[in-house]
């Protein structure tokens, strides 16, 4: 059994139950008097392992911060093409991003990006390291993409579930995830696998190889690895409620808003499935005025639209539908063919290529110099929605594409135009987003030890330079001004042309949106130019670091150990957008993006993906000091130590900040019983995006305007704030560990309580929040938006970030592990039970804005922090073969804790506490089955079935007709089969 020198709770990876399921298993085994190893046990050889919870490397040191360890064998048994998926199964990780998250997005740049989030605090508050070193971010938010890391050479992954800023600096508020590579690997190994879902999609192909060899009598060591991962993803469905494959769980679940002034005593919000947005249809719907309710079929023939809820069009200027819900703009049932939520990718396509090399040379027996080189690329693709949905297109009655019957109706009603809503189903291709992230990283360093006054000291010094580029391209998307010009047709000299002569002069070709008529190639080239929106960004990171660790003197209870060091880091980025999205001021006209008089020279001309140009940088200099002081070493009292650390950090943007931690452990006289506690002050400094964000513009085609109660197409502009200061967190943890007691050798159990409070939280107010705040009387927010801009410009909302909020979360982790030899039962091999559970007691967010209240989102299954989340593993190792069963579960929750549930006689519904007719969102229980067989000493075949019983996700209702699921918690893919072959020599 390997020795863990820093506290990893004997590395069980946090413990126990589906509340009682895993605990019952452990108790049953304990009663049988059986033995267990640590969770991450990978080798029977005695070796020292320095775990990430501290910078102290003195042998025998036990850190007070809980650290979960996932070893190479655990990763192999989980058989995932990306190790990211294996780590995110740990219950303490909540809200991580991945290939199934952000698929609805056009402009975020985070599609297909794999990044961790601990404690639900977000990816920006979790620090991800590679061999204890920072990695150049893959996004301007400062987060690293784990897909770019070398994975076959991983020795283990340490997950520190507590604040670690005093040890590692900014971003370690929720904790640290540290990927540790095998620096002494010799030989050759390879892995190939393939898989698919039970629905015939989601195909994956993975090829990995790694080799290591020593030269010059072992003084020169070289490791290399390479991998190729091709994940086809799960494509989008289309319009209506039809998903890809034969999946049938999508029901357009929606929270229908009846308004706060209901008079029948019923709730404001109603949970309804099969909701119908009544402002648009697949091929066009007249949605206001005297002709309201007339729709067009694929051939352009008008017909009376079938509204759900037996709705009857009011035929007024607002476009109300009597019998439906005017505040939300929904009916229930009816013709759902125009709904667009099913047209979102369930999982992004992903292609991952990685090459890694480490070369180390021993100067002598105690000193090593080394260099590492890593090059990696990740290409992804997602479809955010089908077509291009508009609610407010103006069609002239004299338009030659308008059917004669409609022209006659216009004349009879004395109107010259009508308002149209359409999903854009006539377009031959749907929008697709193509991010490509490329990373180069080089490290030159030296490690070793030396003696000073009879004391041995260790050192680690390195310089790293990293560059990360992201090319983000959007295809088959509309230029809004050109689209509006193309649909405004007229007849000149007997020819159907675009009405605007400026548009005609630059190639405008008229199109017919009343039906499913395919535009000509020339018309498509005009409204959807092939160059499309793009954003090219480059980030650079340079780090110089040096640290020392050793023992300085001895006290009555043992040697006092210390670690200290300094670091200087520089972060820089530059981003460039196209002229049509950015505007011609920062991005001058080019051959691909020439000046067009009908376009807005300030940019934001695309339907979505309006990327802007910008740049920024900051420098940070840090120094840290850590002590471990043994207090007691007595057979009657036990062993106790005090661990303290401090860090001085100076940012070029926001000045100086201090972080610290104070903790301790007590090995009690009771066999195997250890107490631990730690409290720390942690920080997260504003990242480049928050400080210097190039303004990003997105389109919300169905934004709810509370002033009118109708949907409106708006542009949301996100901008940065250079006046931001660091977030300040206070993190406290206390726990008890039972580790291999004499009376039951091998048993490992632990319980840890955590409490995290974050002040001055950098928070971007959502567009709906800003408008709602103004609507509720907070006039300071009213200047941030304009629903009626001059000259027919698109309505907009400016969203900015501020140090205005706070977060408080608390809960506890339970973990356990036990192993039984089955030989006593006449069966071969060993059975190991492992359990991990996290309970979130509270997750309170205070927006810090007058008129708002503190909200507690713990247990909201529309978010990332369910009340309970657990992972249980049963592994039967029979020598040449292995069977692995795994259960993943999280508890039932709510749509939102702010709601008041009522059916009749409801209280007055408010913005802070609205009423709703139901508020229960079921949790989920997933079972995974895997196994392996050693054909020879070198070849091993394996299989894995995820979501064995093909459990569907629960509806996560929205206030629009988007994809009503929560990929942060629920499995969207269904049952997945995977098989592979490993070679080890």
UniProtKB/TrEMBL annotation:
Predominant location: membrane
Domain TonB-dependent receptor-like beta-barrel: 441-948
Keyword terms, alphabetized: Cell outer membrane, Membrane, Receptor, Signal, TonB box, Transmembrane, Transmembrane beta strand, Transport
SUPFAM superfamilies per record: Porins
Superkingdom in the source lineage: Bacteria
Membrane topology: Multi-pass membrane protein
PROSITE patterns, A to Z: TONB_DEPENDENT_REC_3
PANTHER family: PTHR47234, SECRETIN_TONB SHORT N-TERMINAL DOMAIN-CONTAINING PROTEIN
This protein's name: TonB-dependent receptor
Organism listed in the record: Phenylobacterium deserti
Top-level taxonomy: Bacteria, Pseudomonadati, Pseudomonadota, Alphaproteobacteria, Caulobacterales
């Amino acid at each position: 059994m390997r020795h863990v020198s820093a506290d990893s709770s004997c590395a069980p990876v946090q413990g126990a139950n589906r509340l009682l399921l895993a605990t019952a298993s452990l108790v049953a085994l304990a009663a049988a008097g059986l033995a267990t190893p640590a969770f991450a046990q990978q080798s029977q050889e005695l070796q020292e392992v320095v775990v990430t919870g501290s910078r102290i490397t003195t042998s025998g040191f036990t850190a007070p911060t809980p650290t979960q360890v996932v070893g190479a064998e655990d990763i192999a048994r989980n058989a995932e093409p990306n190790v990211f998926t294996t780590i995110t199964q740990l219950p303490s990780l909540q809200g991580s991003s991945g290939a199934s998250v952000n698929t609805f997005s056009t402009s975020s740049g985070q599609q297909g990006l794999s990044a961790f989030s601990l404690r639900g605090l977000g990816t920006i508050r979790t620090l991800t390291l590679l061999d204890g070193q920072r990695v150049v971010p893959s996004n301007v938010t400062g987060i690293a993409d784990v897909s770019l890391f070398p994975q076959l050479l991983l020795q283990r992954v340490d997950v520190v579930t507590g604040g670690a800023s005093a040890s590692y600096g900014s971003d370690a508020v929720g904790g640290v995830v540290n990927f540790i590579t095998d620096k002494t690997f010799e030989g050759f190994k390879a892995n190939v696998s393939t898989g698919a879902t039970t629905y015939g999609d989601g195909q994956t192909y993975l090829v990995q190889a790694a080799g290591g060899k020593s030269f010059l009598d072992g003084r020169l060591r070289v490791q290399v690895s390479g991998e190729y991962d091709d994940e086809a993803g799960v494509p989008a469905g289309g319009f209506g409620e039809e998903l890809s494959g034969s999946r049938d769980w999508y029901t357009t679940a929606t929270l229908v808003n009846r308004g706060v002034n209901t008079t029948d005593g019923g709730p404001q919000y109603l949970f309804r499935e099969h909701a119908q947005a009544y402002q648009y249809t697949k091929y066009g719907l007249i949605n206001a005025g005297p002709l309201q309710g007339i729709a067009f079929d694929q051939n352009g023939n008008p017909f009376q639209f079938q509204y759900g809820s037996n709705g009857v069009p009011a035929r007024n200027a607002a476009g109300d539908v009597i019998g439906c819900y005017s505040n939300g703009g929904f009916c229930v049932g009816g013709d759902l063919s125009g709904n667009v939520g099913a047209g979102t990718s369930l999982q992004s396509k992903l292609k991952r290529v990685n090459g890694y090399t480490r070369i180390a040379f021993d100067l002598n027996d105690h000193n090593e110099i080394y260099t590492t080189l890593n090059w990696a690329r990740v290409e992804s693709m997602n479809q955010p929605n089908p077509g291009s949905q508009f609610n407010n297109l103006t069609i002239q009655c004299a338009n030659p594409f308008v059917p004669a019957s409609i022209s006659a109706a216009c004349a009879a009603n004395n109107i010259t135009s009508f308002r149209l809503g359409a999903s854009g189903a006539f377009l031959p291709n749907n929008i697709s987003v193509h991010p490509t992230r490329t990373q180069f990283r080089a490290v030159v360093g030296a490690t070793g030890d030396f003696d000073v006054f009879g004391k041995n000291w260790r050192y680690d010094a390195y310089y790293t330079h990293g560059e990360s580029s992201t090319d983000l391209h959007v295809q088959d998307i509309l230029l809004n001004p050109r689209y509006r010009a193309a649909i405004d047709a007229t007849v000149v000299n007997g020819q159907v042309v675009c009405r605007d002569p400026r548009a005609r002069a630059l190639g405008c070709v008229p199109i017919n949106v009343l039906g499913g008529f395919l535009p000509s190639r020339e018309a498509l080239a005009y409204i959807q130019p092939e160059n499309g929106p793009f954003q090219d960004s480059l980030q650079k990171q340079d780090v110089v670091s040096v640290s020392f660790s050793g023992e300085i003197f001895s006290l009555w209870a043992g040697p006092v150990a210390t670690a200290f060091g300094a670091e200087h880091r520089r972060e820089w980025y530059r981003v460039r957008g196209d002229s049509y999205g950015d505007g011609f001021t920062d991005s001058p006209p080019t051959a691909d993006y020439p000046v067009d008089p009908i376009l807005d020279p300030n940019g934001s001309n695309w339907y979505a993906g309006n990327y802007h140009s910008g740049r920024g940088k900051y420098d940070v200099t840090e120094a840290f000091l850590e002590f471990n002081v043994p207090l007691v070493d007595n057979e009657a009292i036990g062993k106790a130590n005090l661990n303290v650390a401090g860090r001085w950090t100076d940012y070029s943007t926001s000045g100086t900040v201090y972080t610290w931690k104070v903790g301790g452990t007590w090995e009690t006289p009771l066999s195997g019983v250890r107490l631990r506690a730690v409290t720390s002050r942690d920080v997260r400094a504003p990242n480049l995006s928050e400080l210097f964000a190039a303004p990003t513009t997105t389109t919300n085609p169905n934004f709810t305007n509370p002033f009118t109660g109708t949907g409106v197409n708006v542009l949301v502009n996100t901008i940065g704030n250079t006046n931001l200061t660091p977030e300040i967190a206070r993190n406290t943890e206390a726990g008890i560990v039972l580790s291999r007691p004499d009376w039951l050798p091998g048993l490992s159990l632990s319980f840890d309580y955590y409490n995290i409070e974050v002040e001055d939280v950098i928070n971007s107010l959502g567009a709906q929040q800003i408008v709602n705040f103004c609507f509720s009387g907070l006039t300071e927010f009213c200047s941030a938006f304009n629903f009626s801009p001059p000259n027919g410009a698109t309505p907009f909302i400016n969203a900015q970030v501020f140090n205005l909020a706070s977060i408080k979360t608390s809960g506890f982790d339970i973990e356990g592990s036990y192993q039984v030899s089955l030989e006593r039962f006449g069966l071969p091999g060993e059975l190991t039970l492992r359990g991990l559970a996290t309970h979130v007691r509270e997750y309170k967010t205070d927006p810090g804005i007058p008129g708002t209240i503190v909200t507690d989102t713990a247990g909201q299954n529309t978010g990332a922090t369910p009340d309970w989340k657990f992972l249980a593993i049963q592994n039967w190792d029979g020598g040449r073969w292995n069977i692995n069963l795994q259960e993943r579960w999280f508890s039932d929750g709510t749509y939102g804790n702010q709601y008041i549930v009522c059916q009749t006689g409801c209280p007055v519904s408010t913005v802070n506490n609205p009423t709703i007719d139901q508020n229960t969102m079921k949790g989920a229980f997933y079972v995974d089955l895997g196994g392996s067989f050693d054909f020879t000493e070198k070849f091993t075949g394996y299989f894995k079935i995820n979501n064995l019983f093909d459990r569907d996700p629960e509806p996560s209702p929205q206030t629009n007709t988007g994809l009503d699921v929560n990929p942060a918690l629920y499995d969207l893919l269904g049952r997945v089969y995977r098989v592979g072959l490993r070679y080890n020599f």
